[in-house]
């Protein structure tokens, strides 16, 4: 299976999971190319990749503090 690269993390948001605490894990390599995209730099996937273990460690440290994880980009 081909994995999309993780290129960013928003460590805290109320906006993307209404009325809940969450973080956003951003993936690169979206194939839609929407003209209204808020993150066009994520389309090509040519950004610095974040190690998967670093993301997992962050999520483990937020158990009980975040209500959810939003996955975005790379649709």
Q: Helices, strands, pairings?
A:
Blueprint: E1 6-13, E2 22-27, H1 52-61, E3 68-72
Give structural notes.
This protein has one helix spanning 52-61, and strands spanning 6-13, 22-27, 68-72. It is an alpha+beta fold and 75 residues long. A 3-stranded mixed β-sheet has the order 1-2-3, with no helix packed on it. A hairpin with an 8-residue loop joins strand 1 (6-13) and strand 2 (22-27).
**N→C terminal distance:** 15 Å
Q: What gross morphology would you assign?
A: flat
Largest β sheet strand count, sense and barrel closure: 3 strands, mixed
Kindly state the number of beta strands: 3
Approximate strand percentage: 25-35%
What is the radius of gyration computed over CA atoms, rounded to a whole number of angstroms?
Answer: 13 Å
String of helices and strands: EEHE
Helix percent band: 10-25%
Overall pLDDT metric? 88
Strand order across the largest sheet? 1-2-3
Number of helices: 1
Q: Report low-confidence residues grouped into runs of 5 or more.
A: none
Question: What class, by secondary structure content?
Answer: alpha+beta
